[in-house]
Amino acid sequence: MSPSVLLLTLAADPTGWTPVEKSDGIELFQRELPGERLVELKAITRSKLPVEALCTSAAGGDTLDKREPDIIMRRVVSNAGGVKVTYEQVGTPVISDRDYAVATRRIALPNGGCSTRFEAANQYAPKLPDGFVRIEKLRGSWAFEPQPNGEVLCTYTIFTDPGGPMPAVFIEGPRKKAARTWVKLVLDRAAASAADGGR
User: What DSSP designation does 128 have?
Assistant: First the structure.
């Protein structure tokens, strides 16, 4: 094995994550998943905002935030037992609009941080509206972990496939852009909440 190949092998992430780009303080990674045509994405950044504000911002509210990328409608289906289920519709400019139901659970981490995990829960979705395609593959998480230097490590992981016949090459770019947009939005909402005293 040549030295260059050895170095690449040693530097490879054993979990399969490879760097994609870094901009605006956000590092974006991707990894292939067995049997899937699209990659899973992970965005990492750091913040000095309070963990509580970040986790609450990531969990989102019961109503639609117009800045959320592509989402045109949200309705709370249930909110019991620590799990919130919402029904959402996504507007797309070229292909048919999408919809899905998603279940979200917040989890306290032992290091004083928190995590929010979500996944498709279409058993709670209404009848598919005319002209829509239902997203069946949707899962991800947010994690906010306090660091010794006073910062919070923020990690957003997302895998989704909108379905339909559109080739993956046309989907990956918008997915990466949306991941960065979500991270910026969560940080902005957390900053506004912290400035307002958490209200």
Answer: P
Task: Please measure the distance between the N-terminal and C-terminal CA atoms of the chain and give it in whole angstroms.
Answer: 58
Ordered by start, the domain boundaries in the chain are 20-195
- Provide mean pLDDT across the span 49-72: 90
pLDDT band at 14 (very low <50, low <70, confident <90, very high): low
Using an 8 Å Cβ cutoff, are 132 and 89 in contact?
yes
Q: What is d(CA 197, CA 193) in angstroms, rounded to the nearest whole number?
A: 6
- Give every CB contact of residue 93 below 8 A, 6+ residues apart in sequence: none
C-alpha radius of gyration, the chain, whole number = 18
The pLDDT of residue 17 is above 80: yes
Query: From residue 176, how far is each of 35, 48, 85, 126 by CA, in Å?
Result: 20, 24, 25, 29
Q: Which residue has the tokens 């395609």?
A: 133
Superfamily of domain 20-195, CATH level 4: START domain (3.30.530.20)
DSSP assigned state of 22? E
Long-range contacts of 194-199 (CB under 8 A, 24+ apart): 194/49, 194/50, 194/53, 198/50, 198/52, 198/53, 198/56
Contact criterion met (CB below 8 Å) for 152 and 144: yes
Q: What is the pLDDT of residue 1?
A: 39
Q: Rounded mean pLDDT of 87-95? A: 88
Question: Measured between alpha carbons, how far is 100 from 86 in angstroms, rounded to an integer?
Answer: 8
